[in-house]
């Protein structure tokens, strides 16, 4: 229901291309958005591994716990206990998983490989493009932050997002167009987060 609702909400938004993580919930949500698009349907790629959710490795499927005083993280892990990590521990990963720093680097690759080519196209052609990336809460926050950094700014999400909530980021080319720019070059841009954690499409849904 939520996926169909967000698809219907964006039915009159003409996307240049729709991207998605290959994990089932993101892929199915992206398919619902694509299904609701007018014909001809926009091109799409639902295999973007760079926007998968953060991996928690051995902690997947386990409840997090409060850290026991005097016990190291490694000692907790050895007992299959996975404490909540502190804000200062962005470099720490559960066994076999990703740290926040790992996720940040992956999000930056996603922006460089998926988003930047569209920015370059707009700079060269002067024609607007509107893409959708269907991902997961923690990864979305890192991707949005990475896009904002293209313009030299910083961004931090205000709180968690409900399922199928969306964020809109506007990237505007500065100094007029067209611009001669290399494929991997960031043209001068202004980046604005115009909408955050929007979920208007869920109003009135009945479980």
UniProtKB/TrEMBL annotation:
Phylogenetic placement of the source organism: Eukaryota, Fungi, Dikarya, Basidiomycota, Agaricomycotina
GO molecular function: fructose-2,6-bisphosphate 2-phosphatase activity
Keyword Hydrolase in annotation: yes
UniProt-recorded name of the protein: Histidine phosphatase superfamily
Domain of life: Eukaryota
Keyword Hydrolase: yes
GO CC terms of this entry: cytosol
GO terms, biological process: negative regulation of glycolytic process; regulation of pentose-phosphate shunt
Keyword terms of this UniProt record: Hydrolase
InterPro entries, alphabetized: His_Pase_superF_clade-1 (IPR013078), His_PPase_superfam (IPR029033), Phosphoglycerate_Mutase (IPR051695)
